[in-house]
Structures
1.
Amino acid sequence: MHDQEMTGMNFKSMESEKHLNEVTVLPENVYHSYLGEYFLGQTDLISFGGGFNGWGGLVNPADSNVNIFLNAYTISNYSNEPLTTEAWIGSILPGNGKTSPHVAAGNQALNPPPIPKIDIKSASFLSGKPSRGTNAFVRRVEPITTLTKHDFQGMFIIPPGSSISLFFLSPGKRQAHARVAFGWWEEKA
């Protein structure tokens, strides 16, 4: 009987000390957007064909002091031909690449909106291919479609001085046009 009384008293004592805390669970990309660390953007139109290639990618400058955490990418194929795209990580890309102005912070409620430290770049009509780095995967994109891959939740982490790019192989004699878009967040390296 004594044990039951003690158990009952302890339970009552614990019950009166119980405090409820509200907990909000956010997906990681939403959390980073809230912090002003999530960005999205797209390349200019990428043109290739007739034996020439093209690419679009996230390029992390050596002096950025941030790591890129890839969350999503899309490939829009504006052509009547299926496209083959190779994903390259940490490669040396042919051509200089043009920096895209089409970039925005996910959190537009912050004033001023944050500015990413990395660049979205693209290049068209190149004869070379990426060198070094890793050809991580290949995607086939059907004509007049947009392929969307998302919810990577930062699986691909790109350090300063590196990149992740989608490299378009020439579809033959015909000219093709595509655009690449990315969603990512940045954290201090």
2.
Amino acid sequence: MTTPASGLPPSIVVSRRDAARLEALLDAPQWQHDATAEALLGELARAEIVDDADMPAGVVGMHSRVECVDDNSGERHQLTLVFPHEADAGAGKVSILAPVGSALLGLAVGQSIDWNTPQGRTLRLRVTEVHPGGH
């Protein structure tokens, strides 16, 4: 995660519906003691949870299509944040339980995260657009 001058990760906002669905997902036995699931729980614990109707525009939620740019290389990426059973890397559908997925949840346009790819590259992904998805 990007750590601003305060040393803290960027603040995030999550809808009550997404938080409830994610907490239910993480209660499943296969996610107990899973490092990525624990990281997602940590993200949810620090998130500002708001009613769905109060969810600000331009914030990454479940099924959002996220456009971002790697500030290190200028590469543009388009990802859709999905539940694990919907993940399809070839179609740009990233599981919420993938490290980059849990890191993107709740970020607003303009915020960024540092993400280490499985190939060992460090990306600084800055959210440039968020298109809400259907639930």
3.
Amino acid sequence: MELGHNWHKWKEIMGGAVGLGERVGMDKETINNVAYRLGSFFANNFDPANQEQRLMKELWDEGNEEEKKTLASLMARVSHKASIRH
């Protein structure tokens, strides 16, 4: 199974990246800026692989810049929590 097709595995890996950022001293604003840039990159370069990713892309495409930053911040937090539980 490809990583992109498994939503939970994708969240776990993204959460691990957030945790790594925290461990190397990145502050929340920097982590959120990186999440926003990654969100833009994924939205512009990849087709969604599952229903959850399709929903995220629809929300991303519909949102203005501030809403996209909020969505990226929320995904970083949700992903980080998911990685901590595992």
4.
Amino acid sequence: MIAPPLREIRADIAASREDTRVGFAAIDTRLDKLERRFDNLREAVNGESVRGRYAAAEVEGRPDAIERRLAQLETRG
């Protein structure tokens, strides 16, 4: 009398475990995709900031060069 219901319970538990495994596999796949997207975004942001630093360094050097030229012109004139 007890054995058949126990078998059904065991079968239900096994099916539930399989459903859980499949669900976690889907979640893992989605998380992997998100992690790759975040890595790509992080690389893009870092690349932009490096490019911005080079541009800023170039702009910062221009006033110094202009001031040197102006000083040379003033000493000549």
